[in-house]
Write a structure and sequence with these properties.
Layout lengths: L2 H6 L21 H35 L8 H25 L5 E7 L1 H4 L4 H11 L10 E5 L2 H10 L3 E3 L17 H19 L3 E5 L3 E3 L13 E7 L10 E9 L3 H16 L5 H8 L3 H5 L4 E3 L5 E3 L12 E3 L6 H28 L36
Parallel strand pairs: 1-2, 1-4, 2-3, 6-8, 9-10
Antiparallel strand pairs: 4-7, 5-10, 6-7
Helix pairs in contact: 5-11, 7-8, 8-9
InterPro entries: At1g28695/At4g15970-like, Nucl-diP-sugar_transferase
Keywords: Membrane, Transmembrane, Transmembrane helix
Protein name: Nucleotide-diphospho-sugar transferase domain-containing protein
């Protein structure tokens, strides 16, 4: 190796050692110190800037990871994270429960309706014994308005959503008809359904006191945006003068329905003393709704009946509603009898198939019983959510 050539590679600004006295122990010359310091000074600003930028980045990352309870930033961050978690939770539930066309079935429960042998059990039983309706259970999302209902739902059903986190109720788990808590719950339901539409999911909303006996989709109008059941149906599905019942509806997710549900939810301000169903009955004539060119259809009680106007044909009925009835006990009693009436019909059909005959079924609904005249009976002083509502 050419050591001389190596020695000749002297850094710029450093004198050649060949021209200096050979003294391994001697200190560098003053010229060397001056030139070396000048070189360092030229490099120092860049190094300081780089170091400062690295330190600032570290400080920002560190500060964003700590909790600052004094400034209030922690509570805001926590609230935002909770809202995001709730939304993500809802998205996951809807995704798991949705049909191939992004449609879900939704019902809502409170503690009393979720108790064993109460409304929730009756609803699930109707799906199981209905004509090809058991398959819809995997698409059913149960929205719970209190912790007890949510806990019960989790034990017996796969798709449960806890709405209580989004409510600010004055009482623990009671909301009497048309009280402030009651109105919070029914309007939160509309807000919740608006969120479902916003997420791109269509839905069938069904009150828990509606029994499912057949596939309802075969009776829906494919061209309608919103289809809603009636307490009284006048025979014309396009007539806005029909008396709607918001306990059962089929709503497609599109721009029209999203705008309508937001308008409906905001109508609670215009009509502060009305519940959701009464407000719907008012805004269906509003110019805003008319300008939306929203396709509203009222569905025939022949297929979607109830105690107000029962379906008379067991061969056509899809759902039956315990409407025009006050009191949870009255509803549970009569709906239990209704399921027995349906079982008698199923047994008759099975016998006809076995015997290869085609006799006409002569049976009929033996309800309402306790629900008949329930509006004239004195009400108990305390009722759970939904008891006492004309639904």
């Amino acid at each position: 190796m050419d050591l001389e050539n190596t020695d000749n590679k002297v850094p710029a600004g450093v004198p050649n050692e060949k021209n200096q006295p050979s003294s391994p122990s001697s200190s560098p010359s003053p010229g060397y110190n001056l030139d070396h310091c000048q070189q360092l000074l030229k490099q120092t600003p860049k190094m300081v800037i780089i170091f400062a930028m690295m330190a600032l980045s570290f400080l920002v990352i560190f500060q964003s990871s700590i909790i600052l309870p004094i400034s209030g930033g922690y509570s805001s961050l926590f609230a935002n994270n909770q809202a995001s978690a709730n939304e993500n939770s809802l998205s996951r539930i809807l995704k798991r429960a949705a049909m191939s066309n992004k449609t879900v079935i939704i019902t809502s429960l409170n503690d009393a309706w979720a108790e064993p042998q109460s409304m929730f059990d009756l609803l699930l039983e109707s799906f199981r014994i209905g004509n090809q309706t058991a398959r819809f259970l995997k698409h059913l999302v149960v929205v719970n308005v209190d912790e007890k209902a949510y806990a019960r739902c989790l034990k017996i059903h796969p798709h449960c959503y806890n709405l209580i986190n989004d409510l600010n109720l004055n009482s623990d788990d009671q909301a009497f008809f048309m009280t402030a808590d009651y109105l919070k719950i029914v309007w939160k339901k509309i807000d919740f359904l608006s969120q479902v539409l916003d997420l791109g999911y269509s839905f069938v909303f069904t009150d828990a006191d509606i029994m499912w006996f057949r596939d309802p989709f075969s009776q829906f109008d494919k061209n309608a945006d919103i289809q809603i059941s009636c307490d009284q149906f006048n025979g014309n599905p396009f007539d806005l003068k029909n008396l709607p019942n918001t306990g059962f509806s089929y709503v497609k997710s599109n721009n029209k329905t999203i705008q309508f549900y937001k308008f409906w939810y905001n109508s609670r301000i215009t009509y502060p003393h009305l519940h959701d169903q009464a407000a719907f009955n008012a805004i269906k004539f509003d110019p805003f709704v008319r300008n939306l060119t929203l396709g509203i259809r009222f569905i025939d009680t022949t297929y979607f009946g109830g105690f107000c106007n029962p379906s008379r044909d067991f061969n056509k009925v899809c759902t039956m509603h315990a409407n025009c009835c006050v009191g949870l006990e009255n509803k549970v009693h009569d709906l239990g009898i209704m399921l027995d009436d349906w079982r008698k019909y199923l047994k008759f059909i099975q016998n006809q198939t076995t015997m290869n005959t085609t006799l006409e079924y002569k049976g009929y609904w033996t309800v309402p019983q306790l629900c008949r005249g329930s509006f004239r009976r004195p009400h108990a002083p305390k009722k759970k959510v939904g008891q006492g509502r004309k639904s």
